[in-house]
Amino acid sequence: MVRKATGGAARTGRTDRAGASEGSGSRTAVKAARRPEVRLPGLEPYGGGELEPDGDYDGLDFQEQDFVGQDGAGARFMDCALTGCALDETRLHHARVLDSVLTGIRGVGTDLAESTLRDVELIDTRMGGVQLHGAVLERVVIRGGKIDYLNLRRARLRDVVFESCVLVEPDFMGARLERVEFLDCTLKGADFTDVTFTDVDLRGAAELEIARGVERLAGAVISMSQLLDLAPVLAGQLGIRVEG
Predict the structure, then answer these.
(1) CA 18 to CA 125: how far, in whole Å?
(2) Of 188, 184, 155, 154, the residue nearest 169 (C-alpha)
(3) Most buried by CB count within 10 Å: which residue of 2, 80, 216, 235?
(4) Which class for 205: exposed (0-12), middle (13-18), buried (19 or more C-beta within 10 A)?
(5) What is the 3-state secondary structure (H, E, C) of the chain?
(6) What is the reported pTM?
(7) What are phi and psi for residue 38, nearest 5 degrees?
């Protein structure tokens, strides 16, 4: 069945940021992330009930649903809107979230390990201890909100934008990041151990605090002011003693 997108449901379109920095040609050195183009169709209200493992949810509007402690492992969400839903300890291991918008999601200990998020917008999320290790994120925007202790170990991020959000002690250990942008967001105590960066733009981060893995920044771009802030950490990593 072909769905027609409703006019009011059009979401953020793809924007080309390369070369768009107040006349500065230096932006062209980094390939810009491709943003998702999510245009939701006319959605049907979710009928209620618990999530089901391997469930298939297509074109549904989830409003203020309580999924605390439920098991939706392997479920597929396509062309869906989830607004104000509670996902504390919700099991969504191996889930697929496609062409969907999640707004005001909250939860502690949500298990999205080895899941796939493609063409997804997460807006004003309030979460802690989210498990996304081994996950695949492609054309994803995370805008606003705060996520504590985000686990992205060994995840693959391609065309991902973190915008105006706060990430407290995010763990990227062993992850692969390609065309990832951090815009007006705060990173506190980030772990970049064994991370592989390709066209990753950190210059727009409002605060950049790296706890581990500063030596892995090859393939990322930082600003001069960020370089000065990171100088003590870099010196320590290289065994340089700074005096005077």
Answers:
(1) 27
(2) 188
(3) 80
(4) buried
(5) CCCCEEEEEECCCCCCCCCCECCEHHHHHCCCCCCCCCEEECCEECCCCCCCCCCEEECEEEECCECCCCECCCCEEECCEEECCECCCCECCCCEEEEEEEECCEEECCECCCCEEEEEEEEEEEEECCECCCCEEEEEEEEEEEEECCECCCCEEEEEEEECCEEECCECCCCEEEEEEEECCEEEEEECCCCEEEEEECCCCCEEEEEECHHHCCCEECCHHHHHHHHHHHHHHHCCCCCC
(6) 0.85
(7) -100, 115
Long-range contacts of 70-79 (CB under 8 A, 24+ apart): 75/51, 79/3, 79/40, 79/41, 79/43
How many whole angstroms separate alpha carbon 158 and alpha carbon 155?
Answer: 10
Give me the amino acid identity at 119. D
DSSP strand pairing (156-163 vs 196-201): unpaired
Mean pLDDT by 10 residues, the chain (244 residues): 37 41 50 93 94 97 98 98 98 98 97 98 97 98 98 98 98 98 97 97 96 92 91 80 78
Euclidean distance between CA atoms 199 and 179, whole angstroms: 5
